[in-house]
Specification:
The chain has 533 residues and is an alpha+beta fold. The chain contains 9 helices and 27 strands. The chain is flat, with a radius of gyration of 58 Å.
Length: 533
């Protein structure tokens, strides 16, 4: 209609009034439909709560229920059983069902179904929390303060119809594992139903089962007692009684414990025969048996096989570390160290550089080895003096050692020595240390010392406990002359005056000759300028 008015508006301008009226009607209709849409959405929300939140029983809930308000199915019952709580806050569900021989596994094995109150010849009984007229027999629930009341289930039927035909109940129905008897847990109230009570639990019992004696050493033994308990009996402690060969009590040891096993270690002060017995304190009295009485003998201590002067238990009765056939303090049980030293030219790739010639900048590695070839572990302090080497080289890696510098606290003989902390070396074990040095880029031309012929002699000599390595060097020309000519020639005043006069005559001759040539050149230039030439 709106489109028709608009299309004819050009031919009839009077349609403008109708167009305005139609627009107002459309706005009112839109508002009405919006309100309807809102109410429809609210109705859907309410319907969703009704669909996704199942109804709960309210009419069946009362104080007689073991589970207030009952349960929906077996899974709902198992959930409440595991929590041991219902909606009314009862925390005795597990204890009540256990009292009537119903375990969780019995519930899990049962099926959800129905039964009639007149089944089993009207012999079905049930219990509840309240004391109604038909509920007369009180039953205390073990481990709780709860009391439930028993009655025949058909007495709930109060009309002639139910008296004749009985009432049907939805329930979880199964058999008790303890005796195979029928049981049911009614869905509307959680009350257990049964034909007869489960058999009474067996009486608590406990016993001392066994005693085992295990030697720890010649005089020390461990006594291990084993007990048994059943049907709720408890254990509170073990009492060990030790008697000597005369029957006199040597000692009595009490060990508080609730476990079925217990152990005691005892060290006898004297040799001889002894009897050990164990009594176990239990909730049904002190228990012992012939299995818990044993004998033992503490034999005299043997002598040390390595040194008969000692007993075997002496801390000094021990063999040499690397030779078990001799005593550890024997003269042959000692540590002996063999020391070796090698030098490697890393730059020239010479594994054995001893006796070779190094060049400026070459890197050398000195390897120090200490091997214990003795029979016992010994302590050795590795130290190497590099004073002669450091005249022509610099240390670049001490291999974990410490290079002694010259100062007021360092003895002069220790200067330029590399040392490492003392180390224990076992028999057959070799300890190695590596020191790396680099030959100076410019070989020093320092003259050889008069007091020490080995100092600055173009050789790097290193001695490690008799193991000597020698590296030669390409020294500068002055050092080579020094090696050939040990000292200057001896001269006196006559020789010196003759040498000086000769030099003076040669110099005077060349000086006079140069002056004469200079004068001749000056005369020639003058004549040339005067035109005489």
């Amino acid at each position: 209609m709106f489109r028709k008015i608009v299309s004819n508006l050009a031919f009839s301008p009077a349609l403008v009034g109708q167009l305005g009226f139609y627009a107002k009607r459309l706005r009112k209709e839109e508002a009405t439909r919006r309100i309807g849409l809102i109410f429809t959405a609210l109705a859907l929300v309410v319907q969703a709560f009704a669909v996704f939140t199942p109804p709960e029983s309210a009419n069946a809930a009362n104080g007689n229920n073991v589970i207030y308000g009952g349960f929906k199915d077996k899974n709902d019952l198992l959930s409440m059983y595991d929590q041991n709580r219902d909606s009314a806050g009862h925390t005795d569900l597990q204890q009540i069902y256990t009292q009537f021989g119903i375990t969780r596994q019995d519930i899990a094995n049962a099926q959800f179904g129905t039964f009639n109150s007149r089944d089993f010849n009207l012999s079905i009984k049930s219990v509840g929390r309240s004391t109604y007229a038909w509920q007369q027999a009180p039953i205390g629930i073990g481990g709780t303060a709860t009391t439930v009341y028993e009655s025949l289930l058909y007495k709930f039927d109060s009309t002639s119809w139910t008296t004749v035909h009985g009432s049907s109940y939805q329930a979880v129905i199964g058999k008790r594992a303890v005796d195979g008897q029928w049981f049911a847990i009614m869905a509307g109230c959680g009350n257990p139903a049964y034909i007869s009570l489960p058999p009474p639990p067996p009486k608590p019992a406990a016993a001392c089962s066994n005693l085992v004696i295990a030697p720890v050493s010649r005089t020390k033994f461990t006594f291990s007692a084993t007990a048994s308990k059943s049907n709720g009996a408890t254990i509170s402690g073990y009492t060990y009684t030790i008697k000597d060969s005369t029957g006199a009590t040597v000692t009595t040891k009490q060990q508080p414990s609730t476990a079925t096993t217990n152990a005691l270690t005892y060290d006898f002060a004297k040799d001889g025969k002894y009897t050990i017995s164990v009594a176990i304190a239990t909730s049904v009295g002190s228990q012992t048996s012939t299995n818990c009485q044993k004998s033992l003998t503490v034999s005299p201590e043997p002598r040390c096989p390595l040194n008969p002067d000692l007993v075997q238990s002496s801390p000094d009765c021990k063999p040499c570390e690397n030779n078990k056939s001799i005593w550890y303090k024997d003269k042959d049980c000692k540590s002996t160290f063999v020391l070796t030293k090698t030098v490697k030219n890393v730059t020239q790739i010479l594994p054995d550089a001893n006796g070779t010639t190094a060049k400026p900048g070459d890197r050398l590695e000195y390897r120090l080895s200490v091997k214990n070839v003795g029979n016992t572990t010994g302590t050795y302090t590795i130290q190497d003096n590099l004073a002669d080497v450091l005249e022509y080289a610099d240390v670049i890696d001490t291999g974990g050692g410490t290079l002694a510098k010259k100062d007021a606290t360092t003895p002069i003989e220790k200067v330029n020595s590399v040392s490492w902390p003392s180390v224990e070396i076992k028999p057959g074990v070799t300890i190695e240390k590596i020191v790396s040095v680099q030959v100076k880029s410019t070989i020093p031309a320092t003259p050889q010392s008069v007091g020490n012929a080995e100092s600055y002699n173009c050789r790097m000599v290193n001695n490690f406990a008799g193991n000597q390595t020698t590296i030669s060097l390409d020294c500068p020309a002055p050092k080579e002359v020094e090696q050939v000519v040990a000292e200057l020639p001896h001269t006196g005043p006559t020789e010196n005056m003759f040498f000086a006069g000769t030099v003076l005559a040669i110099v005077a001759y060349f000086y006079a000759r140069s002056r004469q040539v200079k004068k001749e050149v000056r005369l020639i230039r003058r004549d040339l300028n005067a035109g005489t030439i």
